[in-house]
Amino acid sequence: MFFYTVYIIYISENFFEKTMADKIKFELEFPMNVSTPLLYQYISTSSGLAEWFAENVISRGEIFTFVWNGDQEKARVIAKKSSERVKFRWVDEDNEDLEYYFEFRIQEDEITKDVSLVVIDFAPEDEIEEAKQLWESQISELKLVLGSA
Known about the structure:
Elements: H1 2-15, E1 23-32, H2 36-44, H3 46-50, E2 56-60, E3 63-68, E4 71-81, E5 85-91, E6 97-108, E7 115-124, H4 128-146
């Protein structure tokens, strides 16, 4: 767990130093063995996100504060559809929107009922692989919490 915390801090510090022009959008899809409503609770609520995404998550209305190793980053919920998706836009210390965001989308196959979680994020070109590895470790943690590993 210590490795992940250090890694998150490294990515977090570097992430906020770059501008949107330096970042590339990427998507990752993860099969999840869990019900859509339960998964949605873990990607859309402060208590759910605190179980796997950050050490602590505090929500005040549409603003979520994510705490990693004492460092705080804030994001505003800009889109939300029950049991389907939630999109967060990073904000500055005055809660003004920044250019970049991250999004969670739940996809359920109509025939097989298989559930997947799609993560959409941005990273500088030279950090894409590190960002993907970070998300893979985060989603592995989510799967453990949900009992779907």
